[in-house]
Specification:
Blueprint (H helix, E strand, L loop, with lengths): L1 E2 L3 H20 L4 H22 E2 L2 H18 L4 H4 L6 H7 L5 H20 L4
Antiparallel strand pairs: 1-2
Length: 124
């Protein structure tokens, strides 16, 4: 695995980071907050990793999807309560606090979307 800064992926990451911040700030419930935010977060993570590493898109995609699924399934175990972080806003924002099967679908669709874009741009 080789390291090299990629300005394009980093700009995508920064754009998605600001988008996610705006979603958190202005949308407290609903589709945009709960589904679109989850869809975009895997693309954000993918872009962050690709900003610094030269690695095949499928490898990054699988890694990001596994991390997203792991975090979601940890919610079934009430991880925040186990760590006594149930009242910590940042922990709840990063780790979430409710398992939702629709989140898994949103993560999967986000990864499929980014792989489709990569394929169309012939970066495989």
């Amino acid at each position: 695995m080789e390291s090299k800064f990629n300005k394009t992926y980093f700009l995508v990451f920064i754009t998605l980071l600001f988008t996610e911040i705006l979603i958190v700030k202005y949308f407290k419930t609903g589709f945009i907050r709960h589904t679109l935010g989850d869809f975009l977060v895997v693309i954000l993570l993918y872009s962050f990793i690709k900003s610094f590493l030269i690695i095949k898109p499928i490898q990054v995609a699988i890694c990001v999807l596994l991390i997203a699924f792991l975090v979601e399934f940890l919610q079934l175990l009430n991880l925040l309560e186990a760590l006594n972080l149930q009242n910590n806003t940042m922990a709840k924002l990063v780790l979430g606090n409710t398992f939702q099967i629709t989140d898994l679908l949103a993560y999967t669709l986000g990864i499929i979307s980014i792989l489709t874009i990569e394929y169309k741009l012939k970066r495989f």
